[in-house]
Design goal:
Number of strands: 13
Largest sheet: 11 strands, mixed
CATH class: Alpha Beta
CATH architecture: Alpha-Beta Complex
Number of domains: 1
Length: 307
């Protein structure tokens, strides 16, 4: 059975200023996730699962039906604020989803194969899906052994503003040993890359320097279905501490780190020669459009992608 590709598309696009998941950036009106789907299907993935908000389901259904037709099997899962384990409930005034860790958990009712999971608004490159599909299609996958495709930090920054990244460490066996979510990462323009470590336990926020070749997660992961009960328990643990906080989120890198540290899972770091780029801010749009146009001109993608 072919692995499933989960595309996380429930973000509200507050920094971008709109629903960037459906923004047409390619020369033929393609969205960024169109390229991920195209590359994934040709690399060995089968079903596509979109994680969305119920409020824009109609927009997604209209776009997907007109663009993909019957080319492949796809379905939608809504990530809603109320869809969390009992007895927890969202606090008054909360608007944002609960984060990418919660997004993964919402797919448990429709995914029963090994699966990859990615962001809708990141261009990962074909080789990323090739190495991830090759890993997930292995007949001897061990329970609890997952995967991450990692990128150099300096190749993942936005010229338009700060970003968040999961900064990773690995051992001699290419197993992930630690992943820490870092916030407000930016290139200072003088050869330094810095992040802001937020206030915690009474300690004030401070700025910390990172290295250009630090390995970072771009939310391109591979899992087996056995991750779901573990994810449920970890989301419950998160909610015990954070359910009343209106802006708290549980991120996938944090979830994987918890699995590693508790010996409930391990994560293989996969190498790729693909080039990442994405749209975090509206000002990223022009550069992304130019890069996509160039890929078509080089003959790497047809236009339209789905005919």
């Amino acid at each position: 059975m072919q692995p499933t590709l989960v595309i996380m598309a429930a973000g509200m696009g507050s920094r971008y200023g709109g629903l960037k998941q459906l923004d047409t950036l390619g020369p033929g009106g393609e969205t960024i996730m169109d390229y991920s789907i195209y590359d994934a299907l040709r690399s060995g993935f089968g079903k596509i699962v979109f994680v969305i908000r119920e409020s824009f389901r109609d927009d997604f259904m209209r776009v997907c039906a007109s663009r993909y037709g019957s080319h492949f099997d796809f379905t939608f899962v809504a990530q809603e604020l109320e869809d969390i384990p009992a007895p927890f409930f969202p606090p008054e005034g909360r608007q944002k989803p609960w984060g990418t860790g919660h997004a993964l958990l919402t797919t448990s009712r429709v995914v029963n194969t090994p699966f990859g999971i990615i962001n809708a608004d990141d261009f990962y490159g074909r080789n990323t899906f090739e190495v991830l599909a090759e890993y997930l299609n292995r007949p001897n996958l061990l329970p609890g052994l997952y995967a991450m495709v990692g990128y150099r930090l300096d190749n993942t920054l936005s010229p338009s503003g700060p970003v968040s990244r999961g900064i990773c460490q690995r051992d001699e066996n290419e197993l992930l040993t630690d992943v820490v979510e870092r916030y407000k990462i930016r290139d200072t323009g003088n050869g330094r890359i810095v992040c802001v470590v937020p206030e915690e336990d009474g300690k004030p926020a401070y700025e910390m320097e990172l290295k250009a070749d630090d390995l970072c997660s771009m939310n391109c992961w591979g899992f087996l279905p056995d991750v779901y009960p573990k994810a449920h328990d970890l989301v419950v643990d998160f909610l015990k501490e954070n359910a009343a906080r209106p802006a708290s989120e549980y991120h996938l890198p944090t979830m994987v780190n918890h699995l590693i540290k508790s010996n409930k899972g391990a994560c293989k770091v996969l190498k790729t020669n693909a080039q990442w780029f994405g749209v975090t801010y509206r000002d990223d749009r022009e550069g992304v459009m130019a890069r996509l146009k160039s890929l078509h001109e080089q003959g790497l993608y047809p236009s339209p992608l789905f005919t």
